[in-house]
Amino acid sequence: MTAFFALATSLLWGLADFGGGLLTRRLPALTVVVVSQTIATAVLGAVVVATGGWAEAGPRLWCAVAAGLVGPVAMICFYRALAAGPMGVVSPLATLSVAVPVGVGLTLGERPGLVQVAGIAVAVAGVVLAGGPQLGGASVQRRTIALTLVAALGFGTVFALIAQASTTVTGLFLALFVQRVVNVSAGGAALYAAVRRGFPALPDGGLPRASLPALGFVGLADVAANGTYAVAAQHGPVTVAAVLASLYPVVTALAARGFLSERLRAVQAAGAGLALVGTLLLAAG
Q1: Phi/psi at 37 (5° precision)
Q2: Which first-to-last residue range defines the signal peptide (predicted)?
Q3: pLDDT in tens, the chain (285 residues)
Q4: DSSP string across 75-120
Q5: Among 136, 139, 63, which Cα is nearest to 101's?
Q6: From CA 226, how far away is CA 224, in angstroms rounded?
Q7: Predicted model pTM
Q8: Sequence-ordered list of residues with C-beta below 8 angstroms from that of 135, at least 6 positions apart, any chain
Q9: 3-class DSSP state for residue 48?
Q10: Do 107 and 239 contact (CB within 8 A), yes or no?
Q11: Are 247 and 10 in contact (CB under 8 A)?
């Protein structure tokens, strides 16, 4: 069950990243984040009301609040790093986020077997290679590296927090709703501040209505990924769930190949293959 839900997480996050990347070609990235998360928040609010999730309110919700605060900071740092440095360096480096939930799992006493350790090593190497790391070319500024590492730490922290935010399905709906409310509040404040500085929040023609379904998909896929990851972490080793969930860059690369006919470089194809081998080892272990 852990492997299934963790792989579902990587699929959903990969597709969400792919959709978000396409949307940012027409809309500002911060606007995409705020609008997509607002749509997801509205849907989650309806689900919480329908399932009676408010009854699950408790101290664990502070983990959801913290995840909602950390998430936007990590995303802003990640976008700034992507804008300042080569994506072929930034994207693979950001996968270091997996170190946080794996570290939490080890601290809690999880001890993966030899096969699982091998699977973790192979899968992580595959994810890094699937990002298409640039092994040569211009040097990367220290500020870009620092921003990427901060983003990775933030993403990994969100992984760990959301896994602790609830223990039941209805409680998970409530935790995800609270996280998204905080996300939208923080992102909206950042967008407002940016607009005050002259940053255009929308293109000249306003928000294209044709983009709303795609924005909704990105927001809901991201929420669903958080949910499936929480289930995976609750029903099995966090070390395994975190690594399998981190395979989303492979999904994004394959989606670009399938829908945009982008050719995978040899290093990316090799990374995808290694990620698959690592997945099989983790599942077998």
Answers
A1: -75, -30
A2: none
A3: 788 898 899 899 888 878 887 887 788 878 888 899 899 999 999 999 998 888 888 888 999 999 999 987 887 787 677 666 555 556 666 667 777 777 777 777 777 677 767 777 777 777 667 655 555 554 456 777 788 788 888 888 888 888 888 878 888 899 999 999 998 998 889 888 888 888 887 777 677 788 889 999 989 998 898 889 888 888 877 777 877 887 777 777 677 777 777 666 677 667 667 766 776 666 555
A4: HHHHHHHHHHS-HHHHHHHHGGGGHHHHHHHHHTT----HHHHHHH
A5: 63
A6: 5
A7: 0.78
A8: none
A9: helix
A10: no
A11: yes
Please tell me whether residue 168 adopts helix, strand or coil conformation: coil
The amino acid at residue 88 is G
Q: Report CA-CA distances (Å) from 158 to 109, 210, 249.
A: 20, 31, 17
Alpha-carbon distance 267 to 285, whole Å? 27
Amino acid at 247: L
Domain ranges of the chain: 2-284
Residue whose pair of structure tokens reads 């027409």 in the numeric block: 26
CA separation, residue 144 to residues 65, 78, 123, 134, 147 (Å) = 28, 9, 25, 15, 5
Which residue is it, tokens 């966090």?
238
